[in-house]
Amino acid sequence: MAKEIFDYKIDENMDLFALIKTADVRIAKNGSKFISFIFCDHSGEIMAKFWDASDEDIENFQEGRVVHITGKRENYQNNPQIKIFNLHLPHDGEPNDPLDFVPRAPEDTSSMEKDFNAFFLEIKNQTWSKIVHYLIKKYHDRFFTFPAAKKNHHAFAGGLAYHTLSILRLAKAVTEEYDFVDRSLLYAGAILHDLGKVIELSGPIATRYTLEGNLVGHIVLIDEQIVEACQKLDIDQQSQDVILLRHMILAHHGLMEYGSPVQPHLMEAEILHHLDDLDASIQMMKGALDHTEEGEFSERIFGLDGRNFYKPEDKK
Amino acid sequence: MAKEIFDYKIDENMDLFALIKTADVRIAKNGSKFISFIFCDHSGEIMAKFWDASDEDIENFQEGRVVHITGKRENYQNNPQIKIFNLHLPHDGEPNDPLDFVPRAPEDTSSMEKDFNAFFLEIKNQTWSKIVHYLIKKYHDRFFTFPAAKKNHHAFAGGLAYHTLSILRLAKAVTEEYDFVDRSLLYAGAILHDLGKVIELSGPIATRYTLEGNLVGHIVLIDEQIVEACQKLDIDQQSQDVILLRHMILAHHGLMEYGSPVQPHLMEAEILHHLDDLDASIQMMKGALDHTEEGEFSERIFGLDGRNFYKPEDKK
Amino acid sequence: MAKEIFDYKIDENMDLFALIKTADVRIAKNGSKFISFIFCDHSGEIMAKFWDASDEDIENFQEGRVVHITGKRENYQNNPQIKIFNLHLPHDGEPNDPLDFVPRAPEDTSSMEKDFNAFFLEIKNQTWSKIVHYLIKKYHDRFFTFPAAKKNHHAFAGGLAYHTLSILRLAKAVTEEYDFVDRSLLYAGAILHDLGKVIELSGPIATRYTLEGNLVGHIVLIDEQIVEACQKLDIDQQSQDVILLRHMILAHHGLMEYGSPVQPHLMEAEILHHLDDLDASIQMMKGALDHTEEGEFSERIFGLDGRNFYKPEDKK
Amino acid sequence: MAKEIFDYKIDENMDLFALIKTADVRIAKNGSKFISFIFCDHSGEIMAKFWDASDEDIENFQEGRVVHITGKRENYQNNPQIKIFNLHLPHDGEPNDPLDFVPRAPEDTSSMEKDFNAFFLEIKNQTWSKIVHYLIKKYHDRFFTFPAAKKNHHAFAGGLAYHTLSILRLAKAVTEEYDFVDRSLLYAGAILHDLGKVIELSGPIATRYTLEGNLVGHIVLIDEQIVEACQKLDIDQQSQDVILLRHMILAHHGLMEYGSPVQPHLMEAEILHHLDDLDASIQMMKGALDHTEEGEFSERIFGLDGRNFYKPEDKK
Amino acid sequence: MAKEIFDYKIDENMDLFALIKTADVRIAKNGSKFISFIFCDHSGEIMAKFWDASDEDIENFQEGRVVHITGKRENYQNNPQIKIFNLHLPHDGEPNDPLDFVPRAPEDTSSMEKDFNAFFLEIKNQTWSKIVHYLIKKYHDRFFTFPAAKKNHHAFAGGLAYHTLSILRLAKAVTEEYDFVDRSLLYAGAILHDLGKVIELSGPIATRYTLEGNLVGHIVLIDEQIVEACQKLDIDQQSQDVILLRHMILAHHGLMEYGSPVQPHLMEAEILHHLDDLDASIQMMKGALDHTEEGEFSERIFGLDGRNFYKPEDKK
Amino acid sequence: MAKEIFDYKIDENMDLFALIKTADVRIAKNGSKFISFIFCDHSGEIMAKFWDASDEDIENFQEGRVVHITGKRENYQNNPQIKIFNLHLPHDGEPNDPLDFVPRAPEDTSSMEKDFNAFFLEIKNQTWSKIVHYLIKKYHDRFFTFPAAKKNHHAFAGGLAYHTLSILRLAKAVTEEYDFVDRSLLYAGAILHDLGKVIELSGPIATRYTLEGNLVGHIVLIDEQIVEACQKLDIDQQSQDVILLRHMILAHHGLMEYGSPVQPHLMEAEILHHLDDLDASIQMMKGALDHTEEGEFSERIFGLDGRNFYKPEDKK
Prior knowledge:
homohexamer, 11 helices, elongated, alpha+beta, 40% helix, CATH 2.40.50.140, 316 residues, Hypothetical protein af1432, 5-stranded mixed beta barrel, 2 domains, CMP-binding factor (chains A, B, C, D, E, F)
């Protein structure tokens, strides 16, 4: 199998295909243009600068395309990067499918799907069960391929389903420890909480915010889908069941300044908010520590108040 | 015509019918119960305490009922109040319709309706025009009878329509001064911005928050109605027109900590937020200054950072 | 068995012994003194006012004493209370041991201790294991009888151990879901995180803050105990192991404004902070919802930004 | 007439005279010096970098001078800029008057002056009328030529008068809608509210803050002028009229953290604050959207919490 | 000499004359009126309630009057109070001059004046020296008799001069330790920094805010006096000396949210802000600790973030 | 004596030895590496960039080494810098001891030590006196050579002792002005307040944070030393004396968000916080103004809310 980005050691010469995740054209202080790339494959993401870019280069090397790279693996201030020797677009017969190079969730779709099914069965309330089935069916493919975010945590293909599944597993532990929590409501809310991202984001490759994503936002976008589902499924929108489920999604950011139009006023909504936060925090820390040497502090993490994290020495 | 609450002078004996707006049962420090009332009629609201309330009194004198009051008009720390001599429920043939005692907007419904029609005609964009007509028709009666809030500003029957109309008039001035503003969008957004309150609140008498009001909130409640309207009217929900209109409503609280799931990212949404704020501020100040003597400061206004306002002397 | 406080229905006459949890002497508006009590037994806490208290009453009915109460069970604005007919101190032979009336954790000490032992075994790192054993042994009795707080969450005898155990159970689920988390460190930190409360608080009856509690605080108080333990156990204080463990405790409030002198800079410290927060939140919500009727909102919870929580109807 | 900056299309070669608005000398990463320019003429402002600047270049091409430019019009990340081929100072007979190149308010002075006079007549209170006349007369020329700010909104010649006039027109609409507002006070306050900027700023060309501007600020600087005016006009400084007018100016930033030594405690002061904010916001959004393509988001606007604004497609 | 308030022990019967500092009429829960008093004399302030007040009592016992009191000295929740047996206005020949009962600064006027003169001589800069002399002369009597605040710190006759003098003494120590500080500027700023309070407040007895105090504030009020002084003394207002002195006063609250229209941008202004804060804090703590028992915490101090302070035991 | 950095005038050629305080390797936009240096000697610190650095250069010119520099003294945007012509490491016999080039406190160690001894004698309480002596003896050498911070204020050798001494001198003035302040407690707290920095920081040359510094912090590090001292000296840790002293140190940052685990609840702790703040502010302003021209504003100071400070003209 072909060597991937992080199979190369520091200072080793590289020769591989990768996906252009982002390509920003900038102007150097000497007036010429250069491209600031993020390349990726299954092994992760890496930065690189391409100096003195011609108009043709800019035209060729755009976001979402696969390229062939020769260069050298370097490390600069704890950030891995490539010193580029040469770039070219794939020739006929060479690897050219972006999906083959997108970082993916650590579990595969069929395995995740099986786990989800077990959770679906635990939703005993019929209203919630029907709505959840309807919407997961409607957005099935996107749910299992979209990332959970453009950057920060779970920004990989399948990240949305993977993040959702992690929360469900934590939720299971919570309902076992605290038997007064409504398991059906917590699971239904957890499954739908971020589903609006399949409308907010453009997809797993070269992920952007859609216009609806920017002007409406994923919280309200999925709320609207619940309302539509009620109409299709002939469920009374004014029923307590529907109001509770909508509240689970609307309140899951916890604080209004984080975009929830209401704060949690249900025990299960408060718990969902905590679990969402916990899983996101762990993924952000993991992402940063994966590229940190033992005995060092990671880069600062924007989503965690700009804190950096220490990776202990001799950790077994 | 019968004398109303504020027709009585301070220290004058009172004998009148009024509506019980709120009735809170509390326990006095001597252990007996008393009722803390707010009475109202068209002339305004006034507080009163009813001491040593029996269980029968508590049963009789509930929120939303009309009562006959004898007592004395007093003033206590700038707050008008009644010293109650006697309370009884109306006998047959005496006034008994709560709606006859609810404070009302300073303009009557038919006059406001006429003005609204003129604004409707200025919405040239067909998508927005259809949605606005559909929703105002659907909620016509509530729109013209509901208050704009439980307390604070515009807490009177017809307050919702009156507040909306005031904003439209200011919006007209803005579009005349700044000709690059999209008048249709600003008017459509202004008309719908608070319409969710007809679902959030219970009505003009003994106003309470509904369960949906508490757990979903008026901003998302009207957003959902726009989505439904699109389905009924066969309008494409993904069109830019619909997204822009939804953004107008979602962003109108300006800051996320005030309950908007998104901040304004459209010029017209930013303007709507300012005008909503301005009209609400003016009504709060007016409400407080109406009961303030010249040369004095009003009570502190919760919705304006607890500030009090000075009423100048000799103001002509 | 004798009937306890919450075995009585609303409006039922009461005749029972209970513990005086707090007794505040106040002056009524008529100038006489009264005592504002909180009584408690295993079934929970209840308020009561004792009017026209004599100096002898004030002397007799102090915090931490058992009393015999006759009265009536009432409910006032969602807060249960007792209307007192008569109070007297126990006669010889009547129940008189405060510890028999202190609310207790839902699990008994021996059961909790067994569970703790299982967790202790999972701490594979010898430094952490030794320090944890040393300190839990040193404060064994206090650890299993102290509350976790004076009020708010886990304010019952055994609350400290119970809160700690709940966190450990959640921590177990986290380490199963995220295999890169250091289980030994997370468990050791969790066990010690609030142990300083055995110095900060005065004990399970009539709980007060000690002078050290007020001027040093439980976070630094347990940090100091770790330092002492190192000296006794001949462990190098400058070793990474000790620094990491201290950081776990020092950072567990998450934000400096909540009293942590440092923010979390270790993945395990960040996780401990989340789990502590989650368990405390759940206990606060449970406490409030236990006294709330279905279909109603609970009282506002100070420790959760003053939010109130809805208890759904027909919850099975 | 000569072509102006924004008459050139993207990628078109340019040959024109313009004013140097700012000229910052910086050091490039290769160690040589370059000048970062903002050029302007009536059509707007544009950035440009001048590489490898000699000491003579730095001496020649300073803020406030007119230069002849040859270059190419480019666009870089939504920011228009010029690629400079050559710069030289005007030769004899070539355009050389900075005032001919300063961006100007969209209305000319005589038209604005006429409108102001109509507003002056509406100030019926003699105290306010005399003070306003005195100060506008004293600073007449500066008032009609100064910008309202160094950057952000209304940063063009005549911007101060234009901003003031916009507020007066909005104020007129407010007083028509709310007849209990004191028109004289609102107009007098609006006219004077930013007049201190004629002392705070250095003038319309190469605008800087004066020492008084930095250490005293425009709010207190105009307050001091009102005090002086009272002395010249023999008006009692302790009179309510004078105190009210001073309060209008002192409170117009609304919040103390924005530099008002007192918050608004007069209805008219609160309204003036809202209108000032509204007009400034609209001008900032207009400025950003003027250089934004349809269907795109503008650059982020510092004065509006860093938000960017969407320019809808197909806007007619 | 007559016994004063705090010469009486707890539970001792009292018989003395005192000044009514404040008299608030309130309505008891039984519907009758009572007066909530603060009495004072040189020994301090004490609260008392007067039950079942008649209209004549309310008329007689107003703020600013001397009364004869018989009653009992009590202590209630760390707050000293009087249980009133009887009140009457002084008869002819009995003490009746409010000034004889106002709490006073611990140093007398002549002693303070002498110290001030020494500081005046240290102001070597002629501009500052002249302005300071002019204004202290103009407001001499008020400066030495006014309090520094209505409540909180230095709320006693002569408090303004005493507070100013304390700051000057600290300023002297600062200039000795840091020889690069401009002593003249620091002293001049310190002397004038709170002088605006002689216009903001009504005087030493029954202290209220004036209308100017409320709508303009003491910071701007003294700034205006400096401007006037310049005109009388023929000093150039635009000179750096005057601008620096004005900045000292305008910036002395340190943060704009505390009412300074500009933050400190001069070293001496920053230092003055610190010293003002330090002296005010010490006086607030002293005031609270003076009435606290050893080994107890004081009441919470509003001006110090609601903190309470511990008074150590055995303090010699 | 050899010329030092700031003995050279702007544009003068330089030839001197200096210490490399920091050396950051960065990548230029042309892809080559450069080193961004801060050099220092007794006269102060200065920046410089070294272009096109080879791997050998990077290896040679590291933090903490002495180098020989030839270059030119320049000034760039109020920041002094060196244009480097050549760098080399010292040859045998040339100056090579970093300690000879570290900026030092303006007072020498023996003079400071003498002053400290006088303060030690003023600590009359035996508990505090013993602890202070024990700890100052234990860390004597570090106390007199460490800086008080890595950057910001007192970042020079001996800065810790110098900062401590400045606070003691201010504390002396405070205890003279306010005779009710406990001098022993204030002095003892002042001496120890920052002593934890000898563990938090690595030393006077190439100062870094240690792992304990990052994960525990200087406040808790010195608290732990006090606890240890009590054990060695056989002092009761639970005594009020020890609790008070620990509180002095723990609370000295004033606000919890600045890292104090408790806020000040002792008068002396509040005063220590103020004096610490005052001395740090003065040193930061002095540092910035020392490199500012008269009539100009300094650079912005991060530790003072980003404010810049004006240096008046003609200051004698």
